[in-house]
Amino acid sequence: MSKQKKDARPTPRLPRGLRDIEAAELRQQQAMLGKIRSVYELYGFEPLETPAFEYTDALGKFLPDQDRPNEGVFSLQDEDEQWMSLRYDLTAPLARYVAQHYQFIAKPFRRYATGYVFRNEKPGPGRFRQFMQFDADTVGADSVAADAEMCMLAADTLEALGIKRGDYVIKVNNRKVLDAVMTSIGIGGDDNAAKRLTVLRAIDKFDRLGAEGVRELLGKGRKDESGDFTKGAELDDAGIEAILGFTAALAGSNDETLSKLRAITDTEGVAELAQIAELTASAGYGVDRIRIDPSVIRGLEYYTGPVFEAELTFEVKDEKGNPVRFGSVGGGGRYDDLVARFTGQKVPATGFSIGVSRLQAALAVLNRDSAPPADGPVIVTVMEKERIADYQKMVHTLRAAGIRAELYLGNPKKFGKQLEYADKRGSPCVVIQGSDERDAGKVTLKDLIEGAKAAEAIKDHEEWKEQRPAQVTVDAADLVAEVQAIIARHASSRPLSG
């Protein structure tokens, strides 16, 4: 009889397009979310949290990638065999919430929300299947002033995060203008909805591919660097030129751009853009901050009016010295028909969404040379196993004073391992109390940050043993005050970030 095979061990691996996020990045993210939240609250928005799953029919036809068999979303069936999907953005769940509670909410309804969204799309460098967004939306206001406010909100948020004026621009356009252009070249009406969506997605890649890349996507299609082919909108030459002429109407000032757009198609959309330019300028937001730009379209189909995009304009170098430009880190627009899918009534709405992960990556590069390291906990070392209770009391004393602290819980036999652990945790200092210190009512504090600096200047092991850099013995009663002094010393010597 052959031996029964043991169960194969699973391979530890991540699904494609997903990633783990570790402590330092999570702390940066929480600080960033706090600053965004403060601006959104300042504008009067209220928080709302909706589930990660929605019934698939609630997401409707407005999906991010309709070319795929599963339409760009991750879906499953519940116990009642109803299809549910992970949300692909935070706007479709908001539309469902408003429709469900329309009779009871104050209108206009102003909400902000943050959370992960999921796209079943081809992953690539910097393109993940799970990522975080932070949205603000106004539902029930048909005034263009609501759209202008979103542009100002976007500008204020970027500046609150430390992005200087001149290093970003909020670009504004209007879907009504492009709709008029598309109708003029014969792709209006319901029969051409799929072709119009292909045109939208082509223009939405303008920043990344440039005019020639977009031209290919408006025509027969384009093969990228990996060899993958993207089918084009198959417009004729006249249609392509009309679309590219519209996207190229950008001029040096908002007034000049508006004049060019009026020459192409003098529609309600152009008038709305003129009003946004007037409202933002009157509030002190110049063309260096909020600019009319016909190349901005946004890739989702549900936008019905003004659309906007927050773009970072600064260029930095990565660790290899290569230039990096982050481009768009957020966007949004007006979507007056999304709630109507549920209610049958037009409910005006507009919103702005920040791509948190992308913006955080840009801020990390921007502040790479000035960002302080994360503060690790103070580590209380274990010199005598039978005195664990004494050491734990020290930890409690530090925590009671608001100091992050922990007891070393590994094998205490090798003291060097305890110091190595503290280094890896980013600890500012360790607390040491052997029998001699205990009998004298003392503790020894080893300043790991100062010690690392001193160690760079000490080459000889004997010299190290003699000097014991950045190590001090103090009264046990002064433990909290002395640890606070070490932490404060390093905090005050750090450069300011952001």
UniProtKB/TrEMBL annotation:
<feature type="binding site">
    <location>
        <begin position="89"/>
        <end position="91"/>
    </location>
    <ligand>
        <name>L-histidine</name>
    </ligand>
</feature>
<dbReference type="GO" id="GO:0005524">
    <property type="term" value="F:ATP binding"/>
</dbReference>
<dbReference type="GO" id="GO:0004821">
    <property type="term" value="F:histidine-tRNA ligase activity"/>
</dbReference>
<dbReference type="InterPro" id="IPR033656">
    <property type="entry name" value="HisRS_anticodon"/>
</dbReference>
<comment type="similarity">
    <text>Belongs to the class-II aminoacyl-tRNA synthetase family.</text>
</comment>
<feature type="binding site">
    <location>
        <position position="137"/>
    </location>
    <ligand>
        <name>L-histidine</name>
    </ligand>
</feature>
<dbReference type="Pfam" id="PF13393">
    <property type="entry name" value="tRNA-synt_His"/>
</dbReference>
<dbReference type="GO" id="GO:0006427">
    <property type="term" value="P:histidyl-tRNA aminoacylation"/>
</dbReference>
<dbReference type="InterPro" id="IPR041715">
    <property type="entry name" value="HisRS-like_core"/>
</dbReference>
<dbReference type="GO" id="GO:0005737">
    <property type="term" value="C:cytoplasm"/>
</dbReference>
<feature type="binding site">
    <location>
        <position position="133"/>
    </location>
    <ligand>
        <name>L-histidine</name>
    </ligand>
</feature>
<protein>
    <recommendedName>
        <fullName>Histidine--tRNA ligase</fullName>
        <ecNumber>6.1.1.21</ecNumber>
    </recommendedName>
</protein>
<dbReference type="InterPro" id="IPR004154">
    <property type="entry name" value="Anticodon-bd"/>
</dbReference>
<dbReference type="InterPro" id="IPR004516">
    <property type="entry name" value="HisRS/HisZ"/>
</dbReference>
<feature type="binding site">
    <location>
        <position position="119"/>
    </location>
    <ligand>
        <name>L-histidine</name>
    </ligand>
</feature>
<dbReference type="InterPro" id="IPR036621">
    <property type="entry name" value="Anticodon-bd_dom_sf"/>
</dbReference>
<dbReference type="InterPro" id="IPR045864">
    <property type="entry name" value="aa-tRNA-synth_II/BPL/LPL"/>
</dbReference>
<keyword id="KW-0436">Ligase</keyword>
<comment type="subunit">
    <text>Homodimer.</text>
</comment>
<dbReference type="InterPro" id="IPR006195">
    <property type="entry name" value="aa-tRNA-synth_II"/>
</dbReference>
<keyword id="KW-0067">ATP-binding</keyword>
<keyword id="KW-0648">Protein biosynthesis</keyword>
<dbReference type="InterPro" id="IPR015807">
    <property type="entry name" value="His-tRNA-ligase"/>
</dbReference>
<keyword id="KW-0963">Cytoplasm</keyword>
<feature type="binding site">
    <location>
        <position position="298"/>
    </location>
    <ligand>
        <name>L-histidine</name>
    </ligand>
</feature>
<dbReference type="Pfam" id="PF03129">
    <property type="entry name" value="HGTP_anticodon"/>
</dbReference>
<feature type="domain" description="Aminoacyl-transfer RNA synthetases class-II family profile">
    <location>
        <begin position="11"/>
        <end position="372"/>
    </location>
</feature>
<feature type="binding site">
    <location>
        <begin position="302"/>
        <end position="303"/>
    </location>
    <ligand>
        <name>L-histidine</name>
    </ligand>
</feature>
<keyword id="KW-0030">Aminoacyl-tRNA synthetase</keyword>
<keyword id="KW-0547">Nucleotide-binding</keyword>
